[in-house]
User: What shape does this take?
Amino acid sequence: MRHSSKYRPYETSRRPGSAGPGRQTATPRPPSSSCKSVIPLDTRTIRKKAMKDYQKTERSLEDLKTQIKRYHERDVPGFRTWIHQAFGSLLSQQRDMSQQFHSKRELLMEVEELVFRYDLTDIEAYRKAVWRRAHPTEAEEEDLKFEQEQQARRARAKNPDRHNRDDDDDTEPWDDVFGDDADEDFESIPDAEWDCFSDFFENATGHRPPARGSRPPQQENKSAKEVYRTIVRNLHPDHHGHMSEARKNLWHEAQAAYRDHDIQALYNILARCEGGEAGLGNHSPVSLIRNLTTQMKKALQSTRSKIRSTKSNPAWDYEVKIKNPAFVRRIQQSIDDEIQILKHDLEQINSLLSELEWHANHTPPARLRNPHRGRHARC
Assistant: This one.
């Protein structure tokens, strides 16, 4: 059997109801063409579907932003007003006790600093702290002199020939002072207290403490800064001649997101900037619509997480909560608990200060002994 040169037969497997064995079914193949014309595609259907998904996500995000805005603008101020009206006397008592505690805690911290600064005993440091508070001008001059000495010590510490120092310079390396376990001690300090400790350590020893390997890198902040700078370049008037209302809104949103270190919100704003001022519509590529939808969904997920954590605050939707007597009792109980904690802390700190004051008034300077340092550092 001969076939035309335009077509080539293809054998197929036998199916029920087809011809018997030996019969072949030929599938025609279209002739090849050298035409390279671009065939336009009708993307209205997929664009419509993409736009529908984008608009749904945008409505959900705007609804969550409205809830957060209502919380900050209405719930927080309203709850603060209500709690002062309902528990004004308890809050006044708590505020007074808190001020007393912080004032006395500052005195103890000053005593501890003077112990390490001038190598004094606790009683000598307490006497000096009381004198400094009675003579603020002289205390300020003393601090200035001490800071100048520390700057000179730090300058000498940067000298490569660290072993050829003057005889009056008794500065020791931090590892000689704290021993071989210094690295473990530094690692045990919480991140929130590291900056304060680092400054205190430098003032006391003239050296910066070693860098800790456990401190997390600031990659996220760096990335947020890079995205923020890109947004600023896109929104700058030099590129567009003027600031429209839409670009002003994007500018304010970018500032708020950068201030909160919300990297997902910054990416969402950047995608909206790249979309142009005309917004989305029939002229927008489907890929752009889908990209904006993806970024907006990430921002939606981040906003939902923020709302879940914010709802644990008693100020969230407080107007409904205060109608429940159990909620009011919980708020009162939490204030009472904080007052009891302050009372306990005040008793401890008053006991320590009373002991120092008694020894300072009844012990002559010549008979001062060097007690265990840091016994009041826990406060």
User: Anything to note?
Assistant: The radius of gyration is 36 Å. The chain is about 65% helix and 0% strand.
